[in-house]
Amino acid sequence: MHTEKTVPRKAIVGLLLAVIALASALWLAELAASPEHNAAALAELDEKKVTVMELTAASAAASVAISAVPGDATTPLANQISQLSSYLLLVTGAILLEKILLTLTGLLAFRVLIPAACVLGIVCLLLSRDWLRQLAVKLAVFGLALWLVIPASLQVSSLVESTFAVQQTVEEAARAADTIEEEPEEESDSGWLSQIGDAIAGTVSGAVEQAENALGRFVDAVAALIIVNCVIPLLVLWLFLWLARTILGLHMDLPVQKLRGLRRGSRPREDGTRAGDPAP
Questions:
Q1: Which of 76, 78, 162, 199 would give a disulfide with 191, using CB separation of 3.0 to 4.6 Å?
Q2: Dist. CA 63–CA 180, nearest whole Å
Q3: DSSP state of 252
Q4: Residue 59: is its pLDDT beyond 70?
């Protein structure tokens, strides 16, 4: 009687898993990877990329303007500002990687992992193996976590960006670069031959102060962009991996482990008998 009730229930569960697998592979995968579904996230990443490119252009312009100051007093500052472009290139690469993963993770989760979990669930219904059920649950949870990691990192990055006014920091760095570019033009109008020594001395001292101010602004802006676009996504990824490891940390009693236990137990004892043999 119990078997007669179990068979229809297994058939219903198997049919439901088959429907979920087909819907995930044929519909949810296309939806998760479609640009229309990810339009808001892609637009946000494009805005971040534009911000990084503007800051890169501003740093290059500031470096050129500082290098044009007479003397070598501002040359080390100009070199330090120009070296910040390599860090901005790293931020740009991280943004492009997020755009790629935003599409690929959805395809991998809904077209591969979740259908595979459903297939393992169906096989588990037929063979009644607990380790297959545990593996199916692990694949399903890991697929969902993989799909959610990029949107979650974008949400956390936006929250940190609005809380700590990252955009304002970038704008201040751009204004500092504009100030450096305008300063030589203002000084050149008053540089008559009779006052050229005082004009050059004042220009150099003022340029050094502005270059130091601009360098500090650029360092703050680059650090903020690295934290928002590189560090926070890595922290979110680590958090998801930790949660997945905690949730999926189930003991899987695989047949291989049982076979190994039998092999260890079948070794001969000192008296010549084996484990499992009847006592003499």
A1: 199
A2: 9
A3: -
A4: yes
Task: Name the residue among 52, 82, 51 with its Cα closest to residue 65.
Answer: 82
In degrees, rounded to 5, the angle at the alpha carbon of residue 113 between the alpha carbons of residues 109 and 115 is 110
pLDDT tier, 19 (very low <50, low <70, confident <90, very high otherwise): very high
The number of residues in the chain equals 280
Q: Are 52 and 95 in contact (CB under 8 A)?
A: yes
**Is-contact 21 115, C-beta < 8 A?**
yes
Averaged pLDDT for residues 172-185:
66
Is residue 173 within 8 Å of residue 85, measured between CB atoms? no
Residue 202 token pair: 């004042």
Residue from 176, 170, 174 nearest 214 by CA: 176
Residues 134, 131: Cα–Cα separation, whole Å:
5
Task: Look over the chain and give the mean of its residue pLDDT values, rounded to a whole number.
Answer: 77
Distance CA 166, CA 170 (A): 6
Retrieve residue 114's tokens.
Answer: 């979740």
Q: Using CA atoms, how far apart are residues 263 and 268, in angstroms rounded to an integer?
A: 11
pLDDT of the residue at 119: 93
Question: What are the residue ranges of helices labelled H in 227-268?
Answer: 232-247, 255-265
pLDDT (tens digit, 9 = 90+) per residue, 248-277?
764 444 444 444 554 555 455 555 555 545
In the 8-state DSSP scheme, what is residue 248? Answer: T
Helix axes 75-108 and 196-226, enclosed angle (nearest 10): 20
